Amino acid sequence: MNARTLFDKVWTAHEVVPETADTPAVLYVDLHLIHEVTSPQAFSVLKSLDLRVRRPDRTLATMDHSTPTLTEQVFGKIPIKVDAAAKQVRQLESNAAEFGVELFDMRDARRGIVHVISPELGCTQPGMTIVCGDSHTSTHGAFGALAFGIGTTEVGHVFATQCLLQRKPKTFAVNVEGKLRPGVSAKDLILHVIGRIGVSGGTGHVLEYRGSTIRGLSMDERMTVCNMSIEAGARAGMIAPDETTFEYLKGKPRAPQGAEWDAAVARWRTLATDPGALFDASVDIDASTLEPMITYGTNPGMVMPLGGSIPRIEGNAVYDKALGYMGFHGGDVMLGKPIDVVFIGSCTNGRLEDLQAAASILKGRKVAAGVKLLIVPGSQQVKREAESLGLAQIFKDAGADWRESGCSMCLGMNGDTVGAGQYSVSTSNRNFEGRQGVGARTLLVSPMTAAATAVRGQIADPRELL
Amino acid sequence: MEPLQRVHSKTVVIASTNVDTDQIIPARFLTTTTKDGLGKQLFADWRYLADGAPNPAFILNRPEAAGCQVLVAGRNFGCGSSREHAPWALLDYGIRAVISTEIADIFKSNALKNGLLPITVDDATAQWLLTHPGAEVDVDLAAARLTLPNGAATTFPIEAFARHCLLNGTDELGYLRSKLDVIESYEAARRW
After folding, report:
1. Is there a contact between A17 and B179 if contact means CB atoms under 8 Å apart?
2. In sequence order, which residues have a C-beta less than 8 Å from that of residue A211 and are 6 or more positions away?
3. Element (H, E) at B118
4. Is the CB of B31 less than 8 angstroms away from the CB of A44?
5. Which is nearest to B98 in space by CA: B34, B156, B25?
6. Could you say which DSSP state residue B46 is in?
7. What CA–CA distance (Å, rounded) separates B68 from B49?
8. A406 closest CA partner among A108, A41, A95, A92
9. Which of A70, A336, A388, B111 has the maximal Cβ count within 10 Å?
10. Which residue of B has its CA nearest to A162?
């Protein structure tokens, strides 16, 4: 039998009908995650056709994008400020009830960012196909699942049939060898990868992150890496499941238990790419030489080592526009630039290890005067863990604003925004124009760099504060 | 979905590369629960000034953009978020085809499902189009052919089934539902 990739094994196992020249494959979906922003129009289609959600048992709903993070708004009597957002939340509640879909609503202890809660509950498992109306669904690929974002029409397709029509993507090996140095994180690694292959370098491909560096990463770190696959244009990102994966999942509420667990692990062990399997493309990365990274422009591919200076590019209108928006110039040194806001959170960096990394810098220190530090846990579970481990107290003592979970300031649609012209050093995934608020200027970094920057009040190297 | 067979229109050009879906429709407009009326928010942060007045420098506010159904854009159009609100906004505004050297995967998939035609062309064709805003182009979907005003014609790749659905105005859901018996057999045969 031919040597096969992880992707190929998962894809083939879910082909209900293989693709032909005239028709795409009918691909089975094991887990459909939904949230309030990209589901209402899909439920409307079901209603108009008098259809049901075919497999509510394979569907899980939460609310995260348009929800507030202020405790008084989530648990108190103060309503959601934006009427439309409140309506969206109510509509998900009524749709979930009408169609029998399990929903973690605003006050549910299991609520959080969709890509944080599914892994922590053990819903995300190796070898699965997982989709969600959200591009950062690639996060779940960290478990060896084939997970990708879909549009709302496709959300409707999965509701009605539990399947999608898909053309088989190509494969792309991202080989990473060497040990990350202290102060250099998984976030820096993936920012480097995006800078290397470009924001459309992965278009049409599923990335597989491979090599000793990847095998050495924790699950939280692997999720950070896979999360940003879409920022390289990739359809998905995957990492072969191994002992680290199994150890993470064992005992999780919705992971297989007992004899089923043993059978599942035996099956999961067969998923890794076979020796000698071929990829359509590949890139080799030496992790041992990487520095902390920071973006300087208006897409995640405009990225540079934190200690460097902004590259000079002559005669490129797009580059000029991006730097004009950011208020930067070619040749500028990034370290020492003043900033206004620091955001630690999101589906990229809102998990417990991210908060621990930030706390390691913030412990016993204060946020610089004039700087706002917002720390938003990725889920209510992460929030409880951070509180019981004393991290939340470290954040509060430092002067940070500690919130309820949600997408928050990653995208300005829930009340948490960055002001026009303000500089935001953010652990999120997109530095697009206006992403964090109209006119907001976003610089993407790791949690450690964000924390160090909050303390110094200017862009700072976390290695000076380790 | 409206059938789409032919588009004959002048082009409007947004030459920027990597135009992301946050530019096409910013997240703050995604609190809607319908698909309707998003055209007025298309490219909102480029199209309107801080006080809400139209930005006279932005192409969609200029008289020559009126009625254009074809948008020519720089490489990697539609990258970023999976929001289907992006093609909904373009269609509601009146755009029926987008031309670029590269179009992001999820945007392309969403566009095809709504009757917005994503057309990828070679560098030379793109360069010509980017430097000739307002060119009158003809798109023949059945032939997958884009014809420039000078008569030069180029074919573009389009997934066969998506083309079939676009030409006939057919929703893909009907095809998927016709496979429900096969889907049930698949589920029954799965051992995990």
Report:
1. yes
2. A175, A176, A177, A285
3. strand B117-120
4. no
5. B156
6. H
7. 22
8. A108
9. B111
10. B183
CB contact under 8 A, B114 and A153: yes
Tokens matching residue B155? 């074919």
What is the rounded average pLDDT of the residues A64-83? 86
Containing A248, the helix (H) or strand (E) segment is helix A243-249
Q: Where are the alpha helices (DSSP H) in A314-430?
A: 317-326, 346-349, 352-362, 380-388, 391-398
B187 token code pair: 């589920």
> Is A269 within 8 Å of A161 (Cβ atoms)?
no
Residues in chain B with CB shorter than 8 Å from the CB of A433 are 22-23, 45
Provide the whole-model pTM.
Answer: 0.97
Nearest to A284 by CA among A222, A214, A206: A214
Identify the H or E element spanning A454.
helix A447-456
Distances (CA, A) of A59 to A31, A158, A272, A355: 6, 9, 27, 29
Among B31, B74, B114, the residue with its CB nearest the CB of A84 is B31
Confidence of residue A1 (pLDDT cuts 50, 70, 90): low
Distance between CA A81 and CA A67 in Å, rounded? Answer: 10
**Residue in A419, A395, A422 with CA at minimum distance from that of residue A340:** A422
Average pLDDT score over residue span A383-395:
98
Within 8 A of B173 by CB-CB distance, chain A residues are 45, 49, 156-157, 160-161
DSSP letters spanning B50-77: TTS-B-TTSGGGSGGGTT--EEEE-SSB
Q: Minimal Cα–Cα distance from A23 to chain B, Å?
A: 5
Q: Dihedral sign, CA of A316, A322, A324, A326?
A: negative
User: Left, alpha or beta for A269 (phi > 0: left; psi -120 to 50: alpha)?
Assistant: alpha
Cβ separation of B28 and A22 shorter than 8 Å? no
ipTM for the predicted complex? 0.97
Confidence of residue A314 (pLDDT cuts 50, 70, 90): very high
Q: Are A18 and A131 in contact (CB under 8 A)?
A: no
